[in-house]
Amino acid sequence: MVLVTLTRNNKCRICVSHQQKQCAAFDYGLRILGAPGVTVAWIACFFIFCCEGFSALSEYVRSGKGIFPLQVTDIGGTREDVVATSESLQAATFGNGLYISCLALLCPTTTEFFYEKGFSRVCITFPKSSISHAQRHTLATSCVMRGAYEHLPIHEEWAASAKKAMKGKDPNKLIWHTPEDILIKPIYTPLDRACDKDKPIEASDMFLADLSCLSFLRHYAPRHSVVLNKEIIFYARLQLPGKYPYTRGPYPTMYTQRPWTIRQYAGFSTVEDSNKFYKDNIKAGQQGLSVAFDLATHRGYDSDNPRVFGDVGMAGVAVDSIEDMKRLFDGIPLDKMSVSMTMNGAVIPVLAMFIAGAEETGVERKLLKGTIQNDILKEFMVRNTYIYPPEHSMRIIGDIFAYTAKNMPKFNSISISGYHMQEAGADAVLEMAFTIADGIQYCQTGLDAGLKIDQFAPRLSFFWGISMNFYMEIAKMRAARRLWATLVNERFKPKNKRSMILRTHSQTSGWSLTEQINARNCSVRSILAFCEAEIKWLLLQDPYNNIIRTTIEAMAAVFGGTQSLHTNSFDEALGLPTPFSARIARNTQIVIQEESGICRVADPWAGSYMMESLTDEILAKALKVIQDVDELGGMAKAVASGMPKLRIEESAAKKQARIDAGKEIIVGVNKYRLEKEERIDILQVDNAKVRESQIAKLKYIKETRDKDRARRALEGVTEAAKTGGNLLEAAIEASSARCTVGEISYAMEKVFSRYAATIRMVSGAYRSAFGNEDEFNKVVDRVRRFAEKEGRQPRIMVAKMGQDGHDRGAKVVSTGFADLGFDVDVGPLFQTPEEAARQAVDADCHAVGASSLAAGHLTLVPALIKELAKLGRPDILVFAGGVIPPQDYDALYKAGVCAVFGPGTRITDCALEVGIIVSTQLAHEQNLFCVIILRCLGVH
């Protein structure tokens, strides 16, 4: 190790430590290039590593004031004393090949610069008095190589790790010989940048950066790298894939040996239909399964429960019992196929049925591979498919950690999701920060359950959403690995390095998908979106653009180093994917893997000035958010306070306001819109038929099971909830006894109760985005004049019926119209049509807008209209918005819906049209508000 420090008293201190027995030699040059008016302008450090021989270390220090004295200190404690003079230093070192690296640095304050080359580190500290204030933004790292490219071997340390990962095979076999006669190595370092070693460093070679944003990195310096006087520190690592802190990837070879797993998220209708879909995809190249359950299952209800009559089989597969689970995976080798299950609220009965069902088909639980999401904290922030209060939900996670650590060594006990935060509106910093903070909280939960960190942390996994912000998504994934490794290492002191590795699944954005519009029976092209769908929050224009978007996002996930990936189908903004669209989505990944050559190089973005800077910056910002969480006492307490949820909702509202203001472009939505959209086919599910089938199966299983065994098993679940027994273990017995998802969930609910969230709403986002623009003020003025004449503002209720908990769109709509002066009433989540109708009548609303995202509109909306009539208020207008296929519009109109909308134009445009109509049609109040609803609520 080499440490060079220029101290406050203008002395250069060089520290050398030896890390390998074999020796080579290097020449070290330290020189300061003069600049007008600047005492110390540049320091360039040259390292030359030779395969053999032994030479002297020579230093050259020049400035306007003469030669700096030199001090040498051994900080490594691993080699003999170092002898040096002010003219030369002789030291034994090591190396492979002949390289030259250059560093150059100029900054305004006393600053230590660390440069690590895997086996050596250089630190340079500048005194404040030596640097001109005007030269404060320059940080340069330049690497050169001596010798032809073909003579440059694969990095020795990486090669050793890769050889081990490849079970003894030669890593040189991973070198790709292209048709252009170019050798592409599987790994690059700064030493691979080719240029003339004798060429002087030019200003154009330097990279400009403001070091002030990097002060946080002092917390991540090694213990022996002490920051003098608490000044700014920049710690630049020459990192390798598979090496701490894993910025470049969790594994040495990454995709050069094995590409990511193609894992398409799917599940719909019945278990029989889903099973066939899985088998077809496996034959076509899919490498892992990802199961989507319907909302009834998510919320712990059986299909015969009246509260879920519009949700069964609509946004996922309906699973009520172990028999359903066995049919779902019939003919699929669960000891070989990795299975990911997105389940949080009803995680205990669903995981129990997966384990018990596998064993009944001959697969031992220790052989099961896959992941259960089990990420309840994000449910309280964004997705809302929770069942029990937070403290009891966290206890469930601890029970799953304990059981899987003991019995399922190949199974990931949690998938910590940032994806749903992004879909709810979180930007990359919030998504990364809150997800990492969730992970830290789950680690503490495992410790509180009596486990050691190395017993469960290696099986933690993560889940990222990948948006169209290409560079940011790559940097987010790189920074997240570094931040996770560092925080876990600092806070929990694991002995197993796998405890610090962040492994992730990724999914392309659903929010960015667009779909076609049918604005039939609406006199304007305004479209309403209350929403974020079960898989995504959506815009609805020009759906074939989604193929392009998904491809770009998939490449960002791959460059970011994902371990598995789901690519959305282009029609998922309309409904469930068709076989055709699913094939296009799957083949997107196959083409990238098989044809592009992207898999040939591990982390090709490493060393990019832009990417490394962006990685550092997003990490710094995320760390600040995590510090805010820590000040609240951790993520569990932060979630209870509502802070993360409000920040995400504010981010969502601001984003939508930017889109409406034209400050953020979405092709086909607010720019380059088509005059006429092409209709596409979609896959539709007969909800009534699926529910009828599930009810029949439930009736049969309850009639034929051992009733006494089932009763005792359910009592065992309740007792475990009371006394602290392992809930998963008790639920496995209940599943084997043919108890249902609803029964097992209720057995815990009797002890834990069912949680109900408090509805909050942000404000000011649209006013902030539009400022004092005329179009915004015109709308506000028209709403004000209406209120003056009618004696009150237009009152609108936004209803969320069924078990869909995604409320991003409803919150955004409410925020936008409230900012414009409307009186907005937001109903609670999970209402029945009866409950929504009663609230609308009690609040004396002029209209109800029903948000539908999980395909329950054909059942729930007509039921709402009937309930309003029963209560004597058929005059309250009902409209539907969200993810509604155009094919369903006629059925809704016949049921009495006055307008059907999908996402579309800006809130201000819609509201302005309303103001014009209001000023000319005030003769009858109900007609007026009909216009308001049809015109104003056509928003995204």
TrEMBL record:
Might you give the EC number(s) for this enzyme?
5.4.99.2
Which molecular function terms from Gene Ontology are attached? cobalamin binding; metal ion binding; methylmalonyl-CoA mutase activity
An annotated GO cellular component? cytoplasm
Tell me the GO BP annotations in alphabetical order: propionate metabolic process, methylmalonyl pathway
| Keyword Membrane (UniProt) | yes
Per its Swiss-Prot or TrEMBL entry, what cofactor is needed?
A: adenosylcob(III)alamin
* Spans through the membrane: 28-49
**Top-level taxon in the UniProt lineage:** Eukaryota
Pfam families per the UniProt record, alphabetical: B12-binding (PF02310), MM_CoA_mutase (PF01642)
SUPFAM superfamilies to which the protein is assigned, alphabetical: Cobalamin (vitamin B12)-binding domain, Cobalamin (vitamin B12)-dependent enzymes
Key words, A-Z: Cobalamin, Cobalt, Isomerase, Membrane, Metal-binding, Transmembrane, Transmembrane helix
Family matches, as PANTHER family: METHYLMALONYL-COA MUTASE, MITOCHONDRIAL, METHYLMALONYL-COA MUTASE, MITOCHONDRIAL-RELATED
- What family does the database annotate? Belongs to the methylmalonyl-CoA mutase family.
The protein's name in its UniProt record:
methylmalonyl-CoA mutase
